[in-house]
Each structure stands twice: as structure tokens, then as C-alpha cells.
Amino acid sequence: MSLHLLLTDILLWSLMIGGMAWGVYMRKAKAGLEAWRDIFRSPVAMVSAVILLFYLAFALLDSVHFKVNDPHRSDSGSVISLLDMAMQHRRTFSERTYSAPFATQEYTRSVVVDKKGVTHQSFLPLKHVSPEGFWQKSMWGMGVGIALALLLIFLHRRWLRGGHERGEPLPWRSAYMTFAILTVLFSWLYVMSFSFHVLGTDKVGGDLFYASLKSIRTGMLIGTLTTLVTLPLALVLGVSAGYFRGWVDDLIQYLYTTLSSIPGVLLIAAGVLTMQVMMDQHPDWFATTVERADIRLLFLVVILGVTSWTGLCRMLRAETLRISQMDYVTAAKAFGVNSWQIMWRHIVPNLTHIILISIVLDFSGLVLAEAVLSYVGVGVDPTMYSWGNMINQARLEMARDPMVWWSLFSAFIFMFVLVLAANLFSDRVQHVLDPRNVS
Amino acid sequence: MRIVRAVNHYIVWCLFLSFAYGGLWNMPYEKGESATNTLFSTFSVAPKHLDPVRSYSANEWAIIGQIYEPPLQYNYVDRPYRLEPLTLMRMPEVTYLDENGTLCDENSTRVAYSRYHLQLRPDIRYQDHPAFVKHSDGTLYYGKLQPSLLSSISSVWDLPKRASREVRAEDYAYAIKRMAVRAYHSPVLDTMRPYIVGLDSFSKQISQIAQIKHQAHRPLDLRAYTIEGVKVTGKRSLEITIHGKYPQFLYWLAMNFFAPIPWEADLFYQQEGLRAKNISLDTSPVGSGPYYLALSDPNRKMILKRNRHFHTEYYPGMEKTELNRLPFIDRVVYTLEKESIPMWNKFLQGYYDASGISSEAFDQAVEIGSSGSMGLSDTMKRKGIRMIGSVEPSIFYMAFNMEDPVVGGYSESAKKLRQAISIVQDQEEYISIFMNERGVAAQGPIPPGIFGYVLGEAGTNRVVYDWVNGKRVRKSLAYAKRLLAEAGYPDGIDPQTKKRLKLYYDTTATGPDDRALMDWRRKQFAKLGIDLVIRATDYNRFQDKVRRGKVQIFSWGWNADYPDPENFLFLLYGGNAVVDTGGAGINSSNYKNPVFDRLFEEVKSMENTPQRAKKIVRMVHIAQEDAPWVWGVYPKSLVLVHHWFTQVLPHAMANNTLKYKCIDPKERVAKQQMWNQPVYLPLLIIGGAILLLGWWLYKLYEKRQRRTIRERR
Amino acid sequence: MFIYILRRILYAVPILIGVNLITFMLFFMVNSPDDMARVQLGAKQVTPQMIEAWKVERGYDKPLFYNAEASGVEKVTKTLFVQESSKLFRFDFGRSDANRDIKEDIKARMGPSLAIALPTFLIALVTNISLALLLVLFRGTVLDTTAMVIAVMIMSVSGLFYIIAGQVLFSKIWHWVPISGYAEGWEGIRFIILPVLIGVFSGLGSGVRWYRSIFLEQINQDYVRTARAKGLSEVRVLFSHVLKNGMLPILTGVVVIIPSLFMGSLIMESFFGIPGLGSYTIDAIHAQDFAIVKAMVFLGSVLYIVGLILTDISYTLFDPRVKL
Amino acid sequence: MNHALVVEGLTLRTKKQTLVENVCFELKRGECVALVGGSGSGKSLTALAIMQLLPQGVYPVSGDIRLESRSLFDLSERQMQHIRGERIGMIFQEPMSALNPVVCVGEQVAEVLRIHKAIPKAEIKARVISLFDEVALPEPHERYGWYPHQLSGGQKQRVMIAMALACEPDVLIADEPTTALDVTVQAQVLALLEKIKRTRKLSILFITHDMAVVSQIADHVVVMQKGHVVEQEAVDVLFRDPTHPYTRQLLYDASGRMIKRSVHEQKAPTVLSVEALRVYFEKRGMLWGMKREVTKAVDGIDLTLCRGETLALVGESGSGKSTVAKALLALVPFQGEIYLGSTRISGMGERAFKPFRKRIQMIFQDPFASLDPRMRIGDILKEGMESLGVGPRDKEAQYAYLQELLRQVELPESYLERYAHEFSGGERQRIGIARALALKPEVIICDEPTSALDVSVRSQILALLKRIQEETGVAYLFITHDLALVPSIADEVAVMCRGKIVEQGRVKRVMYYPSHSYTRTLLAAVPKLPDFIYGKEDI
């Protein structure tokens, strides 16, 4: 077993580290810190943030990959993540086909030939469930959850008391409640997942709880990494257009008008297909299916980024136009400060609120877009777990009678909670950071 | 507030008005349409080409099969499939000629040409069509459409005058001549070139002429040219000469490529103005079949109507009375249904008369009886739905590229590797999970219903199965592992890299629906400890890789063109290997076994005799041993039909079966009424809730208006 | 005004050239003319002769951007790019690779696309604005906050869920509307009710929030205070002052998309079996019908630019301060 | 009843604080009461409370407001809608934003009539036009269909007045109606209000911060400070004998006499001279090669500024005075000659000009826009030093230098680590001054440095500027629209009108013996406190 970070792992982690570094820097800058405290002063924002962090934790957990070197293991040579290890029991042992949440037998009847040689249709029992002791296991699972939640909350309180609480108290109570509920719920599901398929299984008997957890990373990656592409493009182009004006402005405006005048789906579809061709021509780039899917995800992110920077760029340009009329920029010019320094020192810092708002706003949109793109056939790799892929399968399952509702349900719940949290949080961010809301 | 309420009222009334008169709310057709003698059917892909010279896909043939009439057809009732004359007086007579054109015996080695004599029936007439309207001098009445007239029409049926005429032998010759024109892109031209005498040179010559005419914007009238091997010997007689012996040629004569094309229609449709309106033979066929295309909107709907000039034909094996005269149905409405779910639901609601069963709907529809036979579920039976099933003359298989250094080759170890892999591909599970039992695990290249297919123990693939107690049992995993070890990969470990053997599987499976399938694939290989790397690409890239032999393992399938074993065995014939033929060949696994190839040459032009059967069995055995394919699945087709839809027989080869089928519209209307009564309650609840909310808001505003500032705090 | 429009149209030319450049590059990075020929000629037994004949007929035998064999200016003009895009600029869309007249096809498919998109757009606009005004009227109350939470929830659900749920509920269980399909004329109303409803509903959350924020911004303006000081009731303030001023930012966002309504909605059309333009393009991409793809991308861009121009023009209609 | 409006014990609160407490005053019929106070004194809130148009979250907790004998607080919202506009009219400070920009002005006035009076449609327009006539709007027929942006500031305010008077109300509330206007326009509007008051026997509640305006229009004065009424008195009594210290301070600041200027007799050396400065702005043509529109913002002016002196550049809005400042700093392209000392700096490239930048600096009008909100004060001050290489390089010395700067502008040294948004306008303006001073310039261009500030703060800043000039000998080019300010700050004055200088000379001459008619108009329009205020010695 050796550490084997995928490209997206590295990017996600560096984004995390970058974010944290920025956070530390912000702690020093009092104005920024105050704004953040203001954001968290709303209980809704606090709850959303805890939920988002919970999702992020899973994404991060799923972003530390190891390569299995042991040739005696059945999955030797494959690349697995920490989450896979934790969910080993649900990753490797799968059923034959559909089963409902907490079911003990398959959902559909199959043809069996019994000992007498008579063929009949019957519900086969599931291979990897142990239904006995439901309540004890539940109690145990919840107990562990409660203990864990209390411990962490206690530690946090200690840390706060230790002088880290500044200014007006934040609504920690809501945060603790959310945290406790999530921890208990998850630990219960986790413990139960050893004995049941808590969210049922899909067409080939794959565990949906595992699939839903794996999908978190895909959703989070698309939501976050896309900004890595969008941001530099939009920032550099938007600020230069707004600051230099003249032909630079004309050129950049031309660029983004051209890009945005092409219908978005077509551009993305074309981009994704192009990248697929490139990948097909170089099959040697990827050792495993996981890596291949990973690169495809990365490309998707890049394409989404390249096609979606225009909106932000336009906003940044407009704001830069406004800021560069401000007296403090005039003052800097009167000091003979050169253009690059003015942009870096005066303009970019004053754009942060727009950037932040657009990042949090785009996040949920991107998570939702993934599903639609998968439907059109230009989404993530089909071997990759993602909500889009789950929904697409579920679409067909809804036509069954009786319905196979659980895979749609799992995808719906996991996605809905994330997007809702993101939307509520972005709402708050927008409310606090947007200067128009000051009045 | 008042406005909001008014809008609400308006919406509710609109709903009522738009529905109230139409009977059922969810009726997808016009009012009263389902009470007529009309068949409602679907198509899932918009047909691109309805021109018989070009069209080569099942969905297109399903439509033009009802419109065009080639000389022969398959008998609707008889099994195994049997050809019978359609527009001919009798089956074509074949004479054999030697190099000099003198008659000789069929079995003589001097046979250089075969000549088919076709004698047309006298009562075959084309449908009514504007192209047949003529001036007194014989020129087309609508031959030069004026722009004013053109701008007022959107289909040929907008032209007021129509006429019909008898089908003549020259029309059949005309069709073959059209086939020769390159610009018409006939898919069978290159297949037919080596057979039909003179077609090759004619094709080159006529294609050039066609190009010149096209550049000069002049119409191409093929009547002026003749092919050497296609001779019109009389008003209703025709001779087609082909090189050598080719008994399968009769099957070709049952295909639409050989259906008659009237020169009037060809010239009529070559007018620029019509082309610009998408009116051409590709969209508006002219045929002599039981139906004509009354509406051609390939993006939405196609409507067939009865051709009043259709010749006399009776249901096979029944009394020749007016009651049994074909066709039975007056009108057919095909609706585009891209998605399987709406289509299935509409079938259940009675709006489609027949439907396939998607895997999603399978549980709902089908039950497996105690004997292992499939039957309809009770809910379906209660609805009066019937199931019609048959094994199709097709095969889905997983092929190894025999040119590949790892899985290919004819050495013992390579063979064993392939055999081991073949054993662990649990096709029965595949059929159960992904095909809902709608298939049969294949034993060799020839599917049931085709000459050369063997049932039972004798037909069992001994490489993969054992015959135990009268049943096929897949060989054990242990046995497969042993084979693998013998092949040089103990436990799947590649001795060279000391790692697990890594094989590459190419697929076009890029959609999310395919994830499960790919997981299953990997699982099969993992049983042996082999790592399967899936390389999913789009269809282009996939095809291209196959053509260049740049694949290792891949899945493909084949549908029979005609019910002859040659049409399957040639998939393994070395002369057809893709890499050798620059991609034109059909043998995509590049299998080349000299014994097999020699036998194929022999079998190819034989009649269906016991000798032929014996040789075919030998060929199959050779292929089973070499295992160039994992013999996958012979798919079964299941069709569900409502009880008011009768005389439906499955027929995998025939396309013109619509004329035999029958509908009882009264029963259909009754059932549709029964099954589709709208549920009113939720509508009332929702409407009530909206009104209540509006009222509450109004009260709220009023209250606010009455409040003083002191109360506002 | 006239000069302004003329100028905008002239500016559109380089943009459209850029769009074409991107289309050509992307498409031919993925597809080769040989592949396209194979797709069009059918999968079974396609011979090289057939492919060659097809390529010559469709003009795909020419090089993409640079013709080394030609001489002088023709090195650039005798290429696929110049030949085909110059046709586009004349709005001569030609024939699709499947040999249908594209203009006719677009004309035929535009109707169904509009039948869905236009009612969705209009109903959504009216509902969103009236609901937003309602919420602004009751701003700060429980009603407002509840509605906002509901709006966020509506926003947080993927549109695919609405379609699936709508079809199951309204068509399968309650038998209110046909599951899918399309018909022309008044008969067709049955078919478009569900897609329009779903379209309106799925956009309700974000729409109402957006309009609400626009109106809230207006309601803090000085002129609203003036209006109240005149003695106008709150409802009148909203309808005669806030709505009028709010229309300006609404116009920026809304008018741009009006021409694009022609392009239809891909998802809606494929779920509900509506033969519109939305599915036309994606089908063409999958069928590698370049003639359609380039025509549709071009058309889409033209419509977008028309939208931009219309936005500016609508400003002159609604905002007396703007003169072109 | 003699009282048109009575405010009794009015107290306004938010959830957190009390904004206005126990305010009482009366408005007699046909009388004008001025409500005076600095920003944040609660005067506008009081006015809004009368109209019941308080911002959300502000409520009256006690007190009463009576219109004639009816208590307004007992009226429902619907009844209040009949009071507003019909019985009480109101006009606001910003005529631009107070009018609906997308509705033509005639319609906006007509709307009042339509909702309150049952007048036939045809008559309404006539009524509106006669109202326009009454408020002396030129060509009232045509103006009916005009939109606010087509009217000048004064005309817009006239429209507002017409709107407020449309239903012949008893009371007119005017919330700083002239603050945003140029002096000449202000004088006209005040005259109009005066006239209307007389002809209509109207009661006016006039809210302002400007004592001079009060003296012109009011009969009675209510002085407010921090939400309290500190003094109310008839206007002549109050001006003669202010009792409350705040009132005295207001009067003292308004008189503008606190800065005494030593008169420079001998000519100091010239530090800045400008010859034939022209700044033309070109609008891009509609199509390539078409005729371009040219705006002549500055059209050939000459200026000379001597060491240690102040040159006031006076003009109304749009006269091009700010453009002059930008041209001097080479921030806009210009033509003409500029000499700094003896060096010709016009025509230099940015690179060549950079060394001279430290010699000429600027202070801005808006203290909120002139400091980057994302930077610490220390960094703001350092920016120019580092860019132009002024001041010590090593950290400690630099720190000491910055501290010294803050001390110079009378700010605590601890401010270096803080952000601009934490400070009041006056403090920010001091930081702006320190930023300019940091470079030890020879010339500082002050672009209306006090017009955005409260009166009391204004005089402090002016005093500071004066002190610095005395200490360092820096020359100021002081740009202002406020002629009243000129005598107390400048040695020399130049009056600018439409891009040209119409009159230039020593302050005394220009102020007391203006030669140009424009200067005379300007001077006449400046509202004046009663003469006795100037006559008195220090209060």
C-alpha cells in the first residue's frame, strides 16, 4: 500500500491549503475577519457551513488515494481512497441486483431451479446482510455517534474558552446541534451499513450508501475546482480590460462576447468530446480506470471553467471600471505608482467580495449542472460515482412498476442537502459582502 | 390582489376548456382518431433515408417495407423462413451459363453465370402520385414546377392532380441502375458490383455522367442507359445475369434495394425546388405496396394510408375471400418516441397497440413460470395483453483481436487464455441482469432459426460448457484458473511484470447507464485475477480502432441480412479480416484459420443440404476451439400487444408484415376510456389552496392598511 | 439609432468569425471527414469508394484552414473554413450531411421549440414578477421569509427531478396530460402544459429571488419615498413606480434570452418528445452532422447578438435617459 | 387654531438605541420654522416621522403629532395616505434621485392630483401646467413631457415643489431642499419658497444645516443636537442672543471668521504657473471616421501660485475646476504649459514626470472614496513615499516618520494599524492630508476638501490646513464652489465659469470690488448671516 495521489487530489488539497492560508491571512486583516464573523452570526449560515464542512470532510477523505501493491489481495494494483478503506465492506461485496433499503432479499424475483429440478421465480436472499440484532446495532451506532459528537463539541468549547472567542459570540449552539445530528445520523448509517444496505442497492447490486458517499467527492470537486480555472482567467482579463480600457478592453470584450455567444451546452459538449478523443489517443497516460476517470473529471472541470468565466469577467470589468475612477486610485496615480501595483494593491483587494460571492453562487450551480451534463452524455466518466450518473440511472428505474425509488432518493437527498446548504450559505455571504445590502 | 385571483380563474378555465371537449385529458391523438381502423406505433430514431436505394436500417425498412415491393417476400406464416413471389407470377427461374453464354448444368464446373428470369404479375400498380400525371405528349405534368406553385406546397400531397400506373419490368431495371450511381450512396453497390454482370463498369460510367449532369443542374434520366446483366425482355419480364453461382441472390431480391422505381418519380424529385423543401425520394416514397406515406415528418410523425391500387393478395393459408384480403388496417400512425419510458407508459394506457419490453418494465410485465418458460404477469394478463416472443437471427459477442500479442495468436497458450476468459464470462448472469432473460447464451456463431444451428448436447460448446444430466453447465472457475495457469498466467499474474495481467476492453459505453455493465465486465475478469481496463470512447473512435486492429477485447454484434449461415460464418472468414482489407472487411476479430477458410469457400454457395450442415458443424467446432470470440448472446425479442391487435406473428426477416395485421378499434376505445380517467381531486385541492392563499393575502394587506403607526411597532 | 444598429451589426462580424473558428476547430478535432462519411453512409459495409464519393460531394475533401495545393489567395479561400463560413454569413445553411435542407428543418422545428419556450418564458416572467412584487409588499413578514426559504429549496433541486416527478405524478398517476408528444394548433395545448409548468416551476426559486432583490433595491430609492410622500398606497407605489424602474435591470437579464428562445430547451424537448431545435443540435453533434452543428452554432450566436442589440434598444424604450 | 402642526414629546427608537427624544415644537399657520442641526442630529427623522415615512425598524415610542387638531398617530395607514401629499407636502434634498427617472415630470405631478382629487382627466394637465408656471418653470407646456434627467438641478427642485403644492396642502416640509444646489440656484429656490409662503399662507418646516439659509427664510428656529431640541426661538432673537453653546458654535462656524490671514505684502517666488491650459474630451465617434464630439472642459486658463500662498479656484459645478486639478497632476491629457518652479513639466512622459510628482500633491473631496478601504492607514501613507522614494527607508525610521505625520494632522499614532472605514469623515480627511504631506510637496491641490464635511468639522480642517501652510510654506490651490469660504482661506482667487477664468486677483479686490458680472451674481447669491453677527467680536 503506497500513497498515490491523483491529480484532482493534489488540486483539491492545494486548494484547501491555499484556502487555509488565506484564512490565516484574513485573521490578521481585521476588516475581512469582521465580515466573516458577520457571515457566521446568522444561525442559518452556521448550520449550512457545518453541513458543507461535513461534505468537505468526506470529499477530503475520498481524496487521499493509495495504490494497493500487495499482489495477493484481490484488488491488487487498484487505487483506493481512505473512504474506500472505511467502506471496504460495501465496496467489495456487492449483491446481484436491486434491493430496497434495509431489505433482506432481492427486489426482483429470479429464476431458480430447486433441488427437484422445478423452475420457479422467487426472491433470493441478499448475500451480504445480517438482519439480526437490528435494535442493538442501532443503539450502538447512535451511542458512538453521540459520544463522538459530545467529545468534539466539548473540545471545541474548551478551545473557545481558551481565549479564541472574540467579539460578539457566534451562534455555536446551532452549529453544535447540526454537528451532533449529522454525526449521530452518519455513525448510525455507518454501523448499520455493516449489516445492511442502508440505502439499498442498484441494478448490479452496488451499495447505494457507498455510491452516494463516493459521489460527494465528484460533486465537491466540480463545484470547487472549476473556480480554480475560472478565477485566474476572469480576474486577469476582467481587471486588465477595466483598468487599461482602449484596445485591451476591446480585445477582451471581443473574446468573451464570442465565447458567450456560443450556446453553452454545445461548447461544453464539443469540449468534452475533444478531450475524450485526446484521451483515447493516449491510453498509456492512465494506468487504472480510476486515474482515467480522474483525468476526465479534471478535463471536465477545465472545460466548465473555460466556458463559464465570461460572466464573472464581465462583472469584474465593470467593477474595475468603477474602482479605477475612485479617488484613492487617482491618489495612487498621483504618487506615480505603476499600473500593475495599482491593480494588485487597490483594485484586486476591492474585488474580493464579488469574487467570493460568485464562487459560492457558482458552487451550487455547478453541482446541479453536473447532473444535466451527464444526461446529455458529456458529464463525468460513466465509471465514476456521481449524482448525475445516479439520477440518470434512476430515471429508468422510476418507470419500473413497482418503482425502484431509492437510488433517485439517495441522490436527491445527498444532492439536495448539499445544494441547499450551499445556497443558504451563499445567500448569507452575498447579504453580508455585497455593499448594496448595507442600507 | 384582484389581478392574481383573476389570473387564477383564467388558468383554471383554460384547463377545463381545453380538456372538456377532448374526452380523455391525456389522449395524445386527435379526438376520435383512435376509433378509426388505425394502428398506432412508434419509431425511436428519425428515419434519415426512405429512398430504397439508400436505406439500410431496420427502422427505415419498417416504413418503406410497407410501401415498396421487391420481387420476392418471406412467407409470413411458414418457418423456417421461406421466400415466395410478391410481384412475380412465380419464383424466378435460374439458368446457368458458361463462359460463352451457353446453357449448362447447374452442377457443372463450367458455370460462369447464373441468369434469373423474373416474370411480373399484371395487376401491380403504383400508388396515386403527382409524378404520374402527364401531358398528352407523355411529359410530366409537374415536371417543371413554377416557383409560385412551389411556394404554396409543403408536401407532394399539396399538388392537386394525381395518377397511377402499372408497374413494369423496366422499373425494376431502373432501380438497379439507380443503385449504380455513386452519388446515391447505395450501401449494397459495392456488394453487388462483383455479382451483377456489367454493374461495375456501368457504375463508373454512370457516376461520371451523373456528376456532369449535377454540375450542369440537369436531371439524370437513367432510361437512356442499360446495364449489361440487367435485361428488360418484355413489358413484364426481366433477366438478371450474375457472375458465378450465388444462391443467396434470391434473398437480395427480397430486399428493398430491388424494389421498382418509376422513372417519373425519379425525374419529378430531381427538381431543385422540391429538394430545397426536403421533398425527395428520401422523404416521399412512391411505391406499389399496400400503403403509401401520407405524412412524412421524420421528427414527429409518419402516417401511412392504404393504397387503393394495391394488388389482390390474401392472408397466407386462408380462404381467398374479400374478408381475408390484405391489408386489414386502413391507416398507420408512427410517432417518434426517443425515450423508452413514455413509450411504455403510453402502451399501458392503451395509446400504442404494441410495445417492446424495456428491462425496466420487465418485472412488471413478465413472470417466469415453474417450467422456466416466460409468461405474462397477472396485471398484464388482466389488461388482456399478449406476449409474442422469438429468438432473433442475431448475435452479440465479445471478440478478441487475434492480431493482438497477448490475447491473439493461435498458440496453445493463447488459445487457453481465451478459453479461460470465455469460461468466466457468465453469460447466463448477463442475460439475467442486463437482458431480463431475453436471450440465449450463444454456443457458436450461428443463431437458432438459421440453417446449421444445432440444438441440445450436440450444439453445446464443449470448450465452455459440460453437458450434465441433460443440461448445459458452465465449466468451473477452478478449471478456468487451471487453463489460465497453463496459459502462463498463474492466478492472473503476468510472469513478465510480476503484476496482475492487464487487459484492455474497448467499448462505446460512455453513458452513465453503462456503468453497471462495465462493473460487471470487470468483475468477470477479476474472477481470474485479471485486471480489465475499460477504454470507453465514442463510436467513431471505437470503429476506427477496430478497423485498424488497435483493440484487444471488444464487444460487437451482428444482425442477419438474410437467413443463411453464410451471413454469419463470413464474420470469421479470414478473407474478410479488417486489418487486411483496410477496414472494409467484416471480420473484426481478424480470425484466420486456413481450414475454416477453406470450408467457408465450399459452404458459401451450397444449397442447404446435409453435406452443407456437416461442414458447418465442423467450422463451428474449429471456431469454438480457437475461441476468437466469447460467444455471447442470441437475443430474444419480446413484443407485447394489446388484445385488440391480432394476427401478429414475429418475423425477423420480413419487413412488409403490416398488411397481415388486424385491429379492433371499438375494443381499443373502450379500454382507453377505462384506463385513463383523470383524477380530479388533486386539481381541486391545488386550485382551492391557491384561492385560499390569495384570499388570506388580501386580508393581510387590508389589515395592514387599517393599522395605525402606534399599532405597527 | 439606425447608425447605432448598423455599428452593432458590423461589430458582430468579427464575433461571428470567431465563433465559426471555434466551431470548426472543436468539431474537426473530434471528427474526421471519414468518420462523418461512415456515420452518414451507415455502419454496415462501407467501402472506401463510397467514403471518397461522399466527401467530394459534401466538400469535405478540402483542407480545413490552409490549402497548400492551391495558389495565391486560394490557399486560404479554397478551404473548408472559408467556403463554408462565407455561406453561413449569407445565411445559406445548405443541406445537412444527411442531405436534408437545413433551413427547412429549422423552420419546421422552430415552431415546437417556441411552443414550449415562449409560454414558459412569458408565464415564468409574469409569475416571477408578480410573486416577487407580492413578497416585496409583504417584505420582512413571516410570509416573506417562508417564501424565501421555499424559493431556496426550489432552487436546490436539480431540474431533472422535477421532470421525472412531474411525469410520474401528472401523467402516470393522475392522467391529466399526455406523457409526451406534440401536436400543432390548439390540440397541442395538452402536450405543452406539463413541460411549461415544470419549466416555470423549476425557475421559480431563482427567478422570484432575483426579481425580489431588484425590487427591494428599488424600494430603498429616494423616488419611492417621494411617491409615498405623495400619498400613494403601497400597492400603487409598487406597480406604478417600483415595477417601472425595476424593469430596467430585468430587461438586461431577460431581453438577451428572448431570441435564444428559438433555440429551444434540450432537456425539456428530449424528455417530452418535442421535435424542436434543442434536440436538433445535440442530435447533430452525436450524429456528427457538421453542417447542422455549424449552422446551429452560428444561428445561436446570431440570436445572442440580436439579443444584445435588442437589450440596448429596449433600454431606449423603457429608460428615457438612454439615447442611442 | 393657530397651529398648523404640533410635535409633542416625539421620541423615536430602533431596537437598539434612541434616535430622537422628546422633541417638541409648533408650526404656526403661514410661518416658516427651521429645523437646524448637524448630521445625525435627528432633524430629518423628525420630518419623516411627521409623514410616517420612517425607515424600517424606527418607531415612535411616545409623543404625538397633530395636524390642526387631529392626531396623526391615531390615523390608519389608509387615512395617512390621504394626509400625505394632500395636507402635507414634502420636498427632499436630492432632486435627482427623488424624482422617478423613468416617468415624465408632468405625469409625476399629475399623479398626486389624480389620487387625491376628483378632477377630470382633461383638467389635470392644465392644473399641472399652471403649477409649473407658479414655480417659475420655463416653458411649462413643454416641460410637462420632459424627464428628470433633461432638467437642471434647480428645475428639478421646482418640479418637486410643484408636486408638493399640487393639492394645496397646509404644511410643506422641506428637507434640506437647497443643499445639493449651486449658490445661484439656491438663492432662486429660496426666493421661490418665500414667495409661495406669502401667497399661499403656507406653513413651512424647513430642515437645514446652514445657518445663513435659516436667517434668510425662517421665522422661528428649532436647533437640534443628537436627537434633542437644545434651543428654539424666534429667528432674530436666536441670532442676536443664542443661549445654548451648540447654537453658538453653529453660528460661530457659519460666520467663517475664525481663521485670520496674515496678508503677504511682498511677492513670494512662484512655485506653479499655468499658461493656456486646455483640456478637451473627445467622445468616440459613432462610426469609424465620423465626426467626433468635443467637450471643452478647460478652455485656456492661466494661473500663478506663489510659495506659501493659497489660490482659490472658485466655480459652480461643471465649470471645469476639478479637471484643472487632474491636468496639473498629469492624470488627463492636456495642452498648454505648466511650470513647477522653473521646470516645464508639461509634455513630459510619465517616466520623466515621476520625480516631480512628489512636489505636487492632492487632497480629495470625498473622504470615503479617497482612502482604499482594504488598506491600513500606515500602508496608505507609505504608498507614495515608497513609490516616489521620499522619507527614510529603514523600518524604524519610517515608522517614526509616519507617527510624526499623524501628529502633524492631530491624529493619535495608534491609527497607523487601523483601516479607513473605522474613522469619521473629518479623521479621514486628515489622513488624506497626511498622505499628501508625507511627500513634502511644494504644492497641494485641495479639491473641495471640506464640502462633504459638517460645518464644525469643516472649520477644524481649514484651521489645520492653515497651520500646515504656516509651518511648511506649502502652496495650496484650493478648489471650491463656496465663495463664502474664500476670504478666510485664500490670498488670491480665480473665478471659473464654463472652462474659462472670468476674474482673477487678490481676494480683497475680487470679493469686495468684483469686476465681472458673473462674480457679482455669485456673490449676491451667497446667503448671509445678519450683519450683526460679523460685527461682533469673538463669542
Write a brief structural summary:
Chain A contains 16 helices and five strands. Chain A is mainly alpha-helical. The longest helix of chain A has 37 residues, at 208-244.
Characterise this structure.
The complex is a heterotetramer of chains A (439), B (713), C (324) and D (539). Chain A is mostly helical. Chain A has helices spanning 7-28, 30-40, 43-61, 82-86, 88-91, 134-164, 172-193, 208-244, 246-261, 264-281, 289-323, 327-334, 339-347, 352-376, 387-397, 406-433, and strands at residues 2-3, 65-67, 79-81, 105-113, 119-125. Chain A has two domains: 2-192, no CATH class; 208-433, Orthogonal Bundle (MetI-like fold), CATH 1.10.3720.10. Helix content of chain A is 69%, strand content 5%. In chain A, the strands form two sheets. Chain A has a three-stranded antiparallel sheet. Helices cover 32% and strands 18% of the residues of chain B. In chain B, β7 and β8 (237-243) form a beta hairpin. In chain B, α1 (2-20) packs antiparallel against α22 (681-706). Chain B is globular and about 105 Å long. Mean pLDDT of chain B is 87; it is low at 17-22. Chain C is globular. In chain C, α2 (33-41) packs across α3 (48-58). Chain C has helices spanning 2-30, 33-41, 48-58, 74-77, 80-89, 102-137, 142-155, 159-173, 189-219, 222-229, 234-255, 257-260, 266-272, 277-286, 290-318. By secondary structure, chain D is an alpha/beta fold. In chain D, 37% of the residues lie in helices and 25% in strands. The model of chain D has no long low-confidence stretch (mean pLDDT 85). Chains B and C meet through α1, α5, α10, α17 and α22 of B and α2, α3, α6, α8 and α9 of C.
Q: Assign the CATH superfamily of the largest domain in chain A.
A: MetI-like
Lateral arrangement of strands in the main beta sheet of chain A: 1-2-3
**Biggest sheet layout of chain D:** 6 strands, mixed
Helix content of chain A: 55-70%
Provide the residue-averaged pLDDT of chain A.
Answer: 84
Strand content of chain A: 5-15%
User: How much is the radius of gyration of chain D in Å?
Assistant: 26 Å
How do the strands of the widest beta sheet of chain D line up side by side?
6-7-8-3-9-10
Topology summary:
The complex is a heterotetramer of chains A (439), B (713), C (324) and D (539).
Chain B: H1 2-20, E1 38-43, H2 58-64, E2 72-74, E3 83-85, E4 93-97, E5 103-104, E6 113-119, H3 147-152, H4 169-180, H5 189-192, H6 199-215, E7 230-232, E8 237-243, H7 249-252, H8 263-269, H9 272-276, E9 291-297, E10 301-306, E11 331-336, H10 340-348, E12 354-356, H11 359-365, E13 366-368, E14 374-376, H12 378-383, E15 386-391, E16 394-400, H13 412-424, H14 427-434, E17 439-441, E18 465-468, E19 471-474, H15 477-486, E20 493-494, E21 499-500, E22 502-507, H16 515-526, E23 531-536, H17 539-547, E24 553-559, H18 566-569, H19 594-604, H20 610-626, E25 629-641, E26 645-646, E27 662-663, H21 665-675, H22 681-706, H23 709-712
Parallel strand pairs in B: 1-11, 22-23, 22-24
Antiparallel strand pairs in B: 2-3, 4-5, 4-6, 6-8, 7-8, 9-10, 10-11, 12-25, 13-14, 15-25, 16-24, 16-25, 17-25, 18-19, 20-21, 26-27
Helix pairs in contact in B: 1-22, 13-15, 19-20
Chain C: H1 2-30, H2 33-41, H3 48-58, H4 74-77, H5 80-89, H6 102-137, H7 142-155, H8 159-173, H9 189-219, H10 222-229, H11 234-255, H12 257-260, H13 266-272, H14 277-286, H15 290-318
Helix pairs in contact in C: 1-15, 2-3, 6-9, 7-9, 8-9, 9-11, 10-11, 11-15, 13-14, 14-15
Chain D: E1 3-13, E2 18-28, E3 32-36, H1 43-51, E4 59-67, E5 70-71, H2 77-83, E6 88-91, H3 95-98, H4 105-116, H5 121-134, H6 140-143, H7 153-165, E7 171-175, H8 183-200, E8 203-208, H9 211-217, E9 220-225, E10 228-234, H10 235-240, H11 245-255, E11 270-283, E12 293-306, E13 310-315, H12 321-328, E14 335-340, E15 343-344, H13 350-357, E16 360-363, H14 377-388, H15 395-408, H16 425-437, E17 443-447, H17 455-472, E18 475-480, H18 486-489, E19 492-497, E20 500-506, H19 507-512, H20 517-525, H21 531-535
Parallel strand pairs in D: 3-8, 3-9, 6-7, 7-8, 13-18, 13-19, 16-17, 17-18
Antiparallel strand pairs in D: 1-2, 1-4, 4-5, 9-10, 11-12, 11-14, 14-15, 19-20
Helix pairs in contact in D: 4-5, 4-7, 5-7, 7-8, 8-20, 11-17, 14-16, 16-17
